[in-house]
Structures are given as C-alpha cells and as structure tokens.
Design brief:
The protein is about 0% helix and about 45% strand. The chain has about 180 residues and is an all-beta fold.
C-alpha cells in the first residue's frame, strides 16, 4: 500500500531581506522553495511574485537603481559569495568576492550612498569591496560580530551586534558606525 500523499503546499520559509527598487515600483525579496533560494519581485501594491534571480539571496539595489548585488553559492567552497548584475540583465551577473575575501559565507551586501563600494558580512566581520570586483578590505575584527551592514548618509557603514558584543553592551541589539575609507 502506498503511503498517503500530503495535500499541503511545498515547505517554504518566510520571505525575507526585502529591498525596494529605487523608483518604488516593486519590492525584491528572498524566498526559499523546495530547498532552493531565489530573489523574487512583487509589485508595490501586491500581486503575483515573479522569480528574478534563481539560486540567489540577500538582494540590494544600487543607489542609482541600475545594478543588483546579491549572494549565491559557488564552488569549490559551496559558500555564498557576492555577485553584481545589471538590474535589467541579471543573467550577466559577475562574482565580486572570492574565498580569499573573508571566511565562510559572504552575506547581506549593502551599497554605499555613492554606489562605489559594497559592504558585506563574512564570519563575524565586515568587509568592503568594489562592485566591479578587486581586493576586499576587512573593516572589523572577528570578535566584533557585525551583521546586516547598512550605510549612513555620510558614507560610513553601520551594523547591528547581538547583545553583549560589539562597541556597546546595552539593549538587545546595538549599532556601531565603523569608519571606512570607501
């Protein structure tokens, strides 16, 4: 006798890491379905979401709205690395970080206000790299545990830290501004 079939939809995780298009027309986000992540797009007032970039996560739209930074797993490490693509031609993505640009997974790329630098998280540290590729620069120490970088309007990357770590130990999460030459 065959096992009973489930009528429930495929297992998914909640959508996460939203990023607005600069013109406000749509939101990009990460969605995992059947064990694979992708970057999806939905119109600003809702509607049907469409897959924009397969096998990718952590979308970040450039300040001028022309490029998309994201992460994708690559061989040989099978760890996520940062990619940049023209927003209108995402199939032309180029890898901008390598295994030499921070341990383990590279996550949550964030554009500088002028669009000339990306900041990303790699194993408890923040790094910067040109969106055109090149040598990445480490900004923080391993014990600072920076995550989810964002940029202030004056061009300095900022990050959140779990309570008890980083420059301040008050509250559940703390914020730190890390000076950057980017």
């Amino acid at each position: 006798m065959a096992p009973p079939r489930s009528s429930s939809p495929p297992e998914t995780t909640p959508d996460h890491d939203p990023a607005w298009l600069q013109d406000g027309s749509a939101i990009l986000f990460t969605r995992a379905q059947e064990g694979r992540q992708g970057i999806w797009m939905v119109p600003r007032l809702g509607g049907v979401a469409t897959l924009l970039v397969a096998d990718a996560a952590d979308p970040a739209v450039s300040p001028d709205g022309s490029r998309l930074a994201f992460v994708r797993e690559v061989a040989p490490s099978a760890e996520p690395r940062v990619f940049v693509a023209p927003l209108r031609s995402v199939e032309r993505a180029t890898q901008v970080t390598t295994d030499a640009d921070g341990l383990w997974e590279h996550r949550h790329p964030a554009w500088s206000p002028d669009g000339r630098t990306l900041c990303y998280h790699a194993h408890h540290a923040l790094w910067t790299v040109s969106p055109d590729g090149g040598k990445a620069e480490r900004l923080t120490l391993d014990n600072e545990s920076g995550r989810h970088p964002v940029w202030s309007s004056d061009g300095k990357p900022s990050t959140t830290h779990p309570a008890g770590k980083g420059p301040s130990r008050c509250g559940r999460w703390t914020s730190a501004v890390i000076p950057c030459s980017g």
